Amino acid sequence: MLLLSEDQTRDALPFSGLIDALDAMFKQGCEMPVRHHHDMEVPGEPDATLLLMPAWVPGSYSGVKIATVVPGNSDRGLPAVSASYLLSDGKTGQALALIDGGELTARRTAAASALAARFLARGNAEHLVIAGTGRLSLNLIGAHKAARPISKVTIWGRSLEKAAAIARQAGDLYGVAAAASDDLEAACRSADIISAATLSTDPLIKGDWVQPGTHVDLVGAFKPEMRESDDAAIRKSTVFVDTLAGCSKEGGDIVQAIQSGALRPEDIAADLYSLTRGKHPGRRSEEEITLFKSVGAALEDLAAAILAYESKKPS
């Protein structure tokens, strides 16, 4: 069985190829049961979450990700997400690969946002604003740069020091002009793409700040009680999701907006299935504000695992 470390997994999943792999899998589809989602008490800090995410392409590949999300890890200097992915032969059940699930998750999550941006962000989008300084921040910069001509990145976080560290890494890794900011409003007002990846329970991205033509990418808030955007941002945007079933049940930005009346389920324009299959054109004008909410899907994990395995398996 192939074993892929964090570094090997990163090397096996270049963003341009991974975005294409997700595009192909959303077009093709796969079997994807509803994921198991369990809260786990962690004394003295917010609950952790255990996720079990299976998916398979009949007769081809099957896989399952076991992931834990521990918000308290930020205070320990550890990634919030820890995971492993087991990929098996879809015909025989033979285990093929055990892949670092944290790196796989971070990269496929960022790639899903970039895939959406192919359809929803303006073709000339240059200024990316990142809200959040966790593991996803650098991945989102790399992924969006693979989809759009990003040359300027502004990073906001609750710790300006962490944001500055991310900015330095982004400049070194991706050759962009990156800077930290403690003024999220000013950054959002000048952004082409706003990408939020936090565990916030209070809206960070305000609709009053979002200018015509902006694409808003909401990656965090994977539970109903979490939220990264306010009702005003939802009301003024054309709303898209990664999967309708997942976001309408788990994505706080969608769930709470529906509860408040800011959004009706039928107002969600499309998901990634419809976008990749050409059933919705995506952005319709240069002035349109688009908003994409993702909560993650086992389909994305499977596509990434297959790409990693096929690029690293012995010839």
UniProtKB/TrEMBL annotation:
Single GO term (MF): oxidoreductase activity
Any single Gene Ontology cellular-component annotation: cytoplasm
Source superkingdom: Bacteria
Organism: Roseibium aquae
SUPFAM superfamilies the UniProt entry points to: NAD(P)-binding Rossmann-fold domains
A GO BP entry: carboxylic acid metabolic process
Parts forming coiled coils: none
The protein's name in its UniProt record: Ornithine cyclodeaminase
Family: Belongs to the ornithine cyclodeaminase/mu-crystallin family.
